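Today's session is about reading a structure prediction critically. Students often jump straight to the picture, but the first step is always the sequence itself: look for stretches that repeat, for charged clusters, for runs of hydrophobic residues. Only then move on to the predicted structure, which in these notes is written as discrete structure tokens rather than atom positions. Here is the chain we will use throughout the hour.
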Amino acid sequence: RVVVQRVSEASVDVVNELGTLDPTFEPQQIGPGFMILVGVTDEDGDKQIAWLAHKILNLRVFEDAQGKMNRSIQDIGADLSISQFTLFADVHKGNRPSFIKAGKPEHADFMWIKFDEALRSGGVPVKEGRFGAHMRVGLVNDGPVTIVIDTEHDMPDGTR
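Below is the predicted structure for this chain, in token form.
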């Protein structure tokens, strides 16, 4: 499950346990492109990564010279990818979200890295946050254009 936001700029830094910037992480930033929040389940694998990367690389939501959404990320910019297990928050019961549907950390980290590599193989520079870290993410949503893509519901029948 991803949340794709068209941005004019986006950035991420990591905060340490003291609440200050983590000096071991170089803050990342992009200009025009996508800021992508990425959630992984234990059922996600190579098939989901390939389908999702192809969909994002070819998603035409950037304006052409006539102001129509005809251009893809391959035409204009870069991605900032942030691993975010909270995309699988279940709030059906009570007021404290359950994250039981989120992937186990080892699997989720591995799949997130493979997803970012799939985007890079499509010719798009990808900058990243840090898996499992307390991050501060900033963005200027352009449009706004925000699209949620969930492989469980959006992949064509027979491919999941």
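Discussion point for the tutorial: The first strand starts at residue 2 and ends at 15.
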